[in-house]
Amino acid sequence: MKTSHNIVGLLILAVCSLGIITSPLQAGKYNPVLDVGDQAPTWEKLPATDGKSYASDSFKDKDVLVVAFTCNSCPYAVDYEERLNQLAQKYKGKDSQVAVIAVNVNLIPADSLEKMKERAEKQGLEFPYLFDKSQQIGQAFGATRTPEFFVLNKDRKVVYMGAMDDSTDASKVKQNYVEQAIAAALKGKQPKTSETIAIGCNVRYKRIRRKK
């Protein structure tokens, strides 16, 4: 038995030394940076398609904040656009304790702020659609896909992160994870499902070449 345990121990040590285990201890099952229960990152004012600028503090009066990372250019993001807009419409009232926002960090021409403004007007988007050319907010949240959703509670801790629902085909959706997380957070509880795999296009982070 000791020999068996020693072999396992040596294998784990070898894997770690090779750098295969690279995720931080606090990372979630699918998120490389955040775990459920972590304090969400904050950000300074970012420009939005409505001509205003929004910081994380701009929504401090809301008990729940939904942050969706999306863009113009990804087919998956486009497919979810109507569902995201419907979610925002549902919680649009002044008395609502829920805020729904979207953030784009892609730097390609199709995802520029001007193109975002054009799309927001054309599609009648009713949520603040922010642009972060520094890409820092996406990196801080560990967002890797578009679309990818984060539901934050009153204390701005992550209660859910991942896909909006269980099917990219709107007609086949049986569970809306984001809606479930909102309902739970409003009651001060955790949703039954707190993390899922976000399905979509890769976020286009700028590659930084390391100096040799």
| Portion in beta strands | 15-25%
CATH superfamily: Glutaredoxin
> What sort of overall outline do the alpha carbons produce when their principal axes are compared?
globular
Radius of gyration: 19 Å
CATH class: Alpha Beta
DSSP summary, beta strand count: 9
Assigned CATH architecture: 3-Layer(aba) Sandwich
Number of helices: 5
Main sheet summary: 5 strands, mixed
The largest sheet has its strands arranged as 5-4-3-7-8
Mean pLDDT: 89
The domain count comes to 1
Percent range of helical residues = 25-40%
Structural class: alpha/beta
Low-confidence stretches: 1-25
The CA-CA distance between the termini, in Å, is: 46 Å
Question: How would you characterize this protein structure?
Answer:
With about 210 residues, the protein is α/β, with parallel strands linked by helices. It has one domain (about 40-200): Glutaredoxin. Helices cover about 30% and strands about 15% of the residues. The protein has helices spanning about 1-15, 75-90, 115-125, 135-140, 175-185; strands spanning about 45, 55, 65-70, 100-105, 130, 145, 150, 160, 200. The strands form three sheets. It has a five-stranded mixed sheet. The longest helix is centred in the N-terminal third of the chain and has 16 residues, at about 1-15. It is globular, with a radius of gyration of 19 Å. The N and C termini lie far apart (about 45 Å).
